[in-house]
Amino acid sequence: MPPKLLITGATGFLGSHILRAAQENWHVVGTYHRTTRRQAQYFFGNIDHGRIDLGDYSETKAMIADVQPAAVIHAAAITDLDYCEKYPDESLRINLHAATNLAALCGDEDIPFLFTSADLVFDGSNAPYAEDDPPTPINVFAEHRALAEEGILAAYADAVVARLPLLIGYSLLGRDSFYRQLVAALRAEQEVTLFGDAVRSPVSAAVAAQGLLQIAGSGFEDDVNIAETDRVVGRLHLGGREQISIYKLGLLTLRILGLNEQLAVPISVLDSYAGLLQTPFLAARSANVALDSTRAYDLGYDPPPLRPQLEELLPPSWRLQVAEPDPDESDPETPEGDDGI
Ligand SMILES: NC(=O)c1ccc[n+]([C@@H]2O[C@H](COP(=O)([O-])OP(=O)(O)OC[C@H]3O[C@@H](n4cnc5c(N)ncnc54)[C@H](OP(=O)(O)O)[C@@H]3O)[C@@H](O)[C@H]2O)c1
Q1: I want to staple 113 with a disulfide (CB 3.0 to 4.6 A). Which of 106, 165, 179, 291 is the partner?
Q2: What is the Å distance from ligand 1's center to 310 Cα?
């Protein structure tokens, strides 16, 4: 029997990709919260699973005792930045307390524990960010992620705090994601405003899931080897190799789809503060939070370049049959018409 991997938030955007990818080498157990049992069964099939509120300590403790996982990837969270701003107590309960409690429970049993943190713990003023750069959160979600990172490593020094970049792709449960919305709007040839100064180091959720599983298996081998002595521990950045603004990500998507690049309109994160957005954000948005992921690359994490990742998400049947610019001549970092925002 393969070792048992517990994935919290298995119905989430990232969790669904981890769950799918993990099935090759692990006996997977996934948990969820608001998803109905019926929906979960439709997605999980025969995989063990359980509905749980991770904000409930005794439920969580009982679940760990019941499942007895060989490793845990904690991908459950409240990820809507504006919701967290509006309901900080709920964010505190799940994004901080649930995460630190789960880490401490794993620490008690020396169960390898991976926390999925985010590039958003940084304010965006000093990119690219390395693992030892101090977090500088500018909204409630980021503050609770940063406090969770600290609390987790204080409770369990051998835990992994994996900071992920912006994830692109689609939820395997058909739920909304940033990139799904973007592609749907662009394919409908709707104009889309995108931050030209919000720089990220994105990877697809599938690539991030593989990276997390490599770490969970420790050793970056094909086979799971959690017993390996030099387990990866501590903070680790799993960013992609390119730094690109969200606006330029939109441009690259338009190029691959063969659509008019004018559909992407650059705006600034500062426009939100200046009251220039039709629907202003409640939570402040970070500008450049690109991650320096050298440590992970040295360990064997090897995300492909961004363009092939996007091409995999944009099937040929979606693309207009127009000649695309030669990729060698069309650096996504310097698209034509870029106004440098
Ligand atoms: N998406 C990104 O671009 C991105 C970027 C950087 C880092 N990350 C990190 O990756 C992780 C996952 O993000 P995501 O985008 O996949 O999130 P998501 O799609 O919003 O999924 C959240 C998951 O958490 C579960 N959950 C929520 N409240 C819960 C509770 N009280 N008890 C138990 N489970 C609960 C949800 O279950 P139900 O659906 O059943 O309610 C769902 O499975 C987060 O830690 C996030 O910080 C994501």
Answers
A1: 106
A2: 22
- Ligand 1 pocket test, pick from 33, 144, 149, 203 with the greatest ligand atom count within 8 Å of Cβ, gives 33
Please report, as a single letter, which amino acid is at residue 116.
T
Residue 106 Cβ inside 6 Å of ligand 1? The answer reads: no
For residue 7, the cross-strand partners are 30, 73
Q: Do domains 4-173+201-237 and 178-200+244-288+306-329 have the same CATH topology?
A: no
The finding on whether 43 has its CB within 6 A of some atom of ligand 1 is no
Q: Which fold has domain 178-200+244-288+306-329?
A: UDP-galactose 4-epimerase; domain 1 (3.90.25)
Residues 6+ apart with CB under 8 A from 308: none
For 4-173+201-237, CATH gives: 3.40.50.720
Alpha helices, DSSP H, located in 48-139: 57-67, 81-86, 88-91, 99-109
What is the value of pTM for the model shown?
0.92
In this predicted model, what pLDDT tens digit does every residue of 159-189 receive, in sequence order? 999 999 999 999 999 999 999 999 999 999 9
Please state the domain extents for the chain.
4-173+201-237, 178-200+244-288+306-329
